[in-house]
Write a structure and sequence with these properties.
By secondary structure, the chain is mainly α. It has helices at about 5-20, 25-35, 40-50, 55-60, 70-85, 90-100, 105-125, 125-135, 145-160, 165-175, 180-200, 200-210, 215-235, 240-245, 255-270, 275-285, 290-310, 310-320, 330-345, 350-360, 365-385, 385-400, 405-410, 420-435, 440-450, 455-470.
């Protein structure tokens, strides 16, 4: 059988069916038979006269290898589709599609299913019904009409509900819908009213985020600032005022916020009482009203730290920060001693030079200069002949006329021609020093070097008197 011939006549009949509901597919079959010029046998003709699914199935069962078998199978499918068209229900078309998922009338069956479902949807005329239809037939014949009807219903529902959730649902589904301007206008009013009712910063932000150019923007911004500062004042912390000032650098509460923030900051650093704390205030408020107080407190702490650390570095840190500070004399006195002690410990010309350069009028300048001279002489000893060195050392001792100078000479030349004379001079100097100090310790220093010296008896008597309290 020529299926194309059949399909042409059947489709002709199918298109007319919309006006008359349906004309039997049998008429088409007869037309096809006439056109094909077939000579069917009695069984084939009998099944066509009956024209039922059962008749065609019986023919195929009895004559599976007949020349008419393919035609009968097709006629059977047409009969099933014809039955679906006569009953015209979703179930009947489903039966056809289930039996013939790749059948000749599949497209037509789906179109009819689309039409049937849409008519039901129209009868229900609900948001959900149109949603169900569009889910099944997103590109169907009635899809655009369904979308339009659904949008109308959703908009009417949102107006009736008059809630943000309802209008948000409309916007989610129809972001460029026909009612967008109306929806946004009502929605703005609702969000603004909610912001006023809640009266919180978060509620105001919600309005501003949704409507950055809205008609209530100026009012919302003012309310938000008032709320923000009210919370700031309630929290009353450095951080809360900093947050306000960052948000409103030109705000109407700026002056009060700055004043309160500074007061809180100085109180906090005063309680902490640390160098870092005062530094934080001074860096944050270089012209602050508590600058003098903070600076004094910081200087006091740096001085105490320098004293406690007792290191050149700590002293230098103080001097770097306060070159004209209140504790300069104390710092220099300690630093003077530290530099001298370091020079004594290392006993190098370089460290004595450092001390002498930094403290030319220092408390230990004489000792430092003497010891440096001794170190220079020790260096000369390696470079001069013994005679030259002795002459140089003798001249140095007489020039200095000091205990260390004479001590060095005696140590270097215990048997020298001038040694006895120099011993006598040294003893005299040590005795005079003891008399000047007039302490047991000073006199004992004399006896330690001269237990049988010229003044030993006198010194022992003086010690006795001091211990008895007579001197």
């Amino acid at each position: 059988m020529d299926h194309s011939c059949f399909s042409f006549n059947f489709l002709l009949m199918y298109n007319r069916k919309r006006a008359m509901k349906i004309i039997s597919v049998t008429s088409g079959i007869i037309l096809i038979t006439l056109l094909s010029g077939c000579s069917p046998d009695s069984a084939f003709m009998r099944s066509k006269r009956i024209n039922t699914v059962e008749a065609y199935q019986a023919f195929v069962s009895e004559h599976p290898d007949s020349v008419y078998t393919d035609e009968v199978i097709f006629l059977k499918e047409a009969a099933v589709f014809n039955t679906a068209m006569e009953t015209y229900t979703d179930e009947s078309f489903n039966q056809y599609l289930s039996a013939y998922p790749q059948g000749f009338f599949v497209k037509l069956a789906n179109q009819e299913k689309d039409h049937i479902l849409y008519r039901k949807t129209e009868l229900n005329h609900t948001i959900e019904a149109y949603a169900d239809y569009l889910k099944l037939y997103p590109g169907g014949k009635h899809a655009q009409e369904a979308k339009t009807n659904r949008e109308d219903l959703l908009f009417r529902w949102a107006k009736k509900e008059n809630s943000l959730d309802a209008y948000d649902k409309y916007l989610d589904e129809f972001p460029v819908g026909r009612y967008i301007d109306s929806v946004q206008s009502v929605r703005e009013n609702l969000i603004y009213q909610r912001a006023k009712d809640l009266n919180t910063v978060e509620a105001m932000d919600s309005y501003l985020n949704n409507f950055p150019d809205g008609k209530f923007v100026d009012s919302v911004i003012k309310i938000k600032e008032d709320l923000w500062f009210r919370k700031t004042a309630k929290d009353n912390t450095v951080e809360s005022y900093s947050s306000y000032l960052n948000q409103y650098p030109q705000g109407k509460y700026v002056e009060k916020a700055q004043t309160d923030r500074e007061n809180l900051w100085i109180k906090r650093v005063t309680d902490q009482n640390s160098i870092d704390g005062y530094n934080s205030y001074l860096n944050e408020f270089p012209n602050g009203k508590f600058r003098a107080k903070a600076d004094r407190s910081k200087e006091e702490l740096m001085y105490q730290k320098a004293k406690n650390d007792n290191t050149k570095e700590s002293m230098d840190n103080y001097l770097l920060e306060y070159p004209k500070g209140n504790y300069l004399a104390q710092i220099h006195r300690i630093r003077d001693l530290l530099l001298y002690q370091k020079a004594k410990k290392t006993n190098t010309i370089e460290d004595y030079d450092t001390y002498i350069t930094e403290y030319p009028q220092g408390e230990y300048i004489v000792q430092a200069q003497d010891q440096r001279e001794i170190l220079v002489l020790a260096k000369d000893k390696q470079e001069l002949t013994p005679e030259e060195y002795q002459t140089r050392l003798e001249a140095y001792a007489k020039k200095k006329n000091s205990i260390p100078a004479y001590t060095l000479y005696i140590q270097e030349f215990p048997e020298g021609t001038k040694t006895d004379e120099i011993r006598g001079i040294r003893e005299e100097l040590i005795y005079q020093r003891s008399k000047k100090a007039h302490t047991v310790k000073a006199y004992e220093e004399y006896l330690k070097d001269f237990p049988n010296g010229r003044y030993s008896k006198k010194v022992r008597k003086t010690i006795e008197n001091i211990n008895l309290g007579w001197e």
